[in-house]
Design brief:
Radius of gyration of chain A: 13 Å
Mean pLDDT of chain A: 95
Structural class of chain A: alpha+beta
Shape of chain A: globular
CATH class of chain A: Alpha Beta
Strand order of the largest sheet of chain A: 2-1-3-4-5
CATH architecture of chain A: 3-Layer(aba) Sandwich
InterPro entries (chains A, B): DUF1636 (IPR012863), Thioredoxin-like_sf (IPR036249)
Largest sheet of chain A: 5 strands, mixed
Largest interface: A-B, 26 and 26 residues
Organism (chains A, B): Paracoccus methylovorus
Strand content of chain A: 15-25%
Number of domains of chain A: 1
Order of helices and strands of chain A: EHEEEHHE
CATH topology of chain A: Glutaredoxin
Pfam family, one (chains A, B): DUF1636
Number of helices of chain A: 3
Oligomer: homodimer
Protein name (chains A, B): DUF1636 domain-containing protein
Chain lengths: 117, 117
């Protein structure tokens, strides 16, 4: 099954927007798609995850799994985000053990939501 | 279709825990279930929505709809939460127009996640 990594491409992450400069969310999306996407993961840009005060925000979700939302992500975090998404894809319920969870996912959780249904 | 209102019953909402006293998340759950549940809504307690620094937290979700997570909820907000859940249940995609959205949902959004699939 494919899991979805949503990336807010409108996140300003509390930075002023400079003319002609991509916002932090767009930069994060660019950094993620510039690398090889892990097997079982698809990256989907989204306009606003309504986590504006905690941006840049991303979310991991899939049918039947817990959804996770993380904040304060930057383009420099792209490798860890992809590793974390791969670990999420490798589960059946979305729950990655604490020991196997990447550091930024341990420290910058915004929320998790039980499987929807 | 039934929508789910998840309520974190372990949320301490940054308050010290007093012996024998229910935590703020449990108090919120009690306040919500003490009132009539709106049609089309079910209230489901959950242990930890991983929004600990922004608790007490709740989430609204249903298959095919946007998921919404709200923070800084208190027992006093129960009537508005139930009104907001009813409005969410009345949509097909989970998106309640800004004008019809209850004030606490406008101001205390933690995140929203696109329909999962």
């Amino acid at each position: 099954m494919i899991v979805t990594l949503h990336v807010c491409i409108t996140c300003r992450a509390s930075h002023p927007v400079l003319d002609g400069e991509p916002v932090p969310g767009a930069r994060l999306h660019d950094a993620l798609t510039a690398q090889e996407t892990p097997e079982g993961v698809r990256i989907v840009p989204v306009e606003c995850l309504s986590a504006c005060t905690n941006g840049a925000a991303i979310a991991l979700s899939a049918p039947g799994r817990w959804t996770y939302v993380y904040g304060h992500m930057t383009a420099e975090d792209a490798p860890q985000i992809l590793a974390g998404a791969a670990a999420y894809a490798g589960t059946t319920d979305g729950i990655v053990s604490w020991r196997e969870r990447v550091t930024i996912f341990r420290k910058r959780s915004l929320a998790r939501i039980p499987p929807i249904g």
